[in-house]
Amino acid sequence: MTRRWTSTPILKATAAVHAAAALSTLAVPTAWPWTLAAVLGNHAALTLAGLLPRSTLLGPNLTRLPTTALTHHQVALTLDDGPDPQVTPRVLDLLDTGAAKANFFCIGWRARQHPALCREIVARGHRVENHGDAHSNAFSLFGPARMHADISAAQATLSDITGQAPLFFRPTAGLRNPFLQPVLTQLELRLVSWTRRAYDTREGRAQRVLQRLSHGLAAGDILLMHDGHGARAPDGQPVILTALPLLLQAFALQGLQPVTLKDALT
Question: Would you state the pLDDT for residue 255?
């Protein structure tokens, strides 16, 4: 059954503010400065909500695994911005060595360039999820039609290539606007952010990446790394190739099992 979109309190408040502003402008024209201030304040609140990747003000947002993951000592490792033919195959080998499953949030246009790599991700027991088609830095400024077109294009690409439809979506840098949740509801996708992130697109020191991911690490965490657009370590290698083995060791020491989001939620 298709889920129905339900407005959040902040969106209901937005509708109320705009309705009140329209009535106030008609009834008391001289009050326009106050009316304008209320509308601008409301838009500032919406913008702030969209700039906070882990916020739930604009709709449901998975930032941690459900409580059942605590019982099973599960965590979810998510990898953004691939597939990258120079990095992703080596990441897959490392995951195999650590008996870990991961969630690859792939970009549509990159998947079309490297379809065999996407199929390899699935063949090794991982999941391919939706990270948009263009991976535009302006994604959070898209209107509903353009947002729908971008996400649905990636959904079609990834479904056709892998034979399985993505279940989860993550926007570029986690940034969004109020149009996203209705689009995701229509496309039967769930928004996912993270519990902790590595900032490994700009941090090339593997120990620093590991520290950010492992400090306070616990069952139920969703971790964010990048197999695409990653920073380079001092030796010139993508930092994930040095940091990931260390992270997998940290999982093992704490008895944590990296699983797919799908498995953790079913």
Answer: 97
pLDDT at residue 1, rounded to an integer? 38
Confirm if 80 and 222 have CB atoms less than 8 A apart: no
- Amino acid, res. 231: A
**C-alpha to C-alpha distance for 165 and 188, rounded to whole angstroms:** 10
> How does pLDDT run across 3-60, given as a tens digit for each residue?
665 766 666 656 555 555 566 666 667 766 656 665 566 666 767 778 899 999 999 9
In 3D, which of 39, 55, 94, 130 has the Cα closest to residue 237? 94
41 φψ region: left (φ > 0), alpha (ψ -120 to 50), beta (else): alpha
State how far the Cα of 171 lies from the Cα of 167, in Å rounded to an integer: 14
Distance CA 199, CA 254 (A): 23
Give tens-digit pLDDT for 48-88.
Answer: 778 899 999 999 999 999 999 999 999 999 999 999 999 99
The Cα 32–Cα 11 span in angstroms is 22
From CA 192, how far away is CA 63, in angstroms rounded?
6
Q: Say which amino acid occupies 179.
A: F
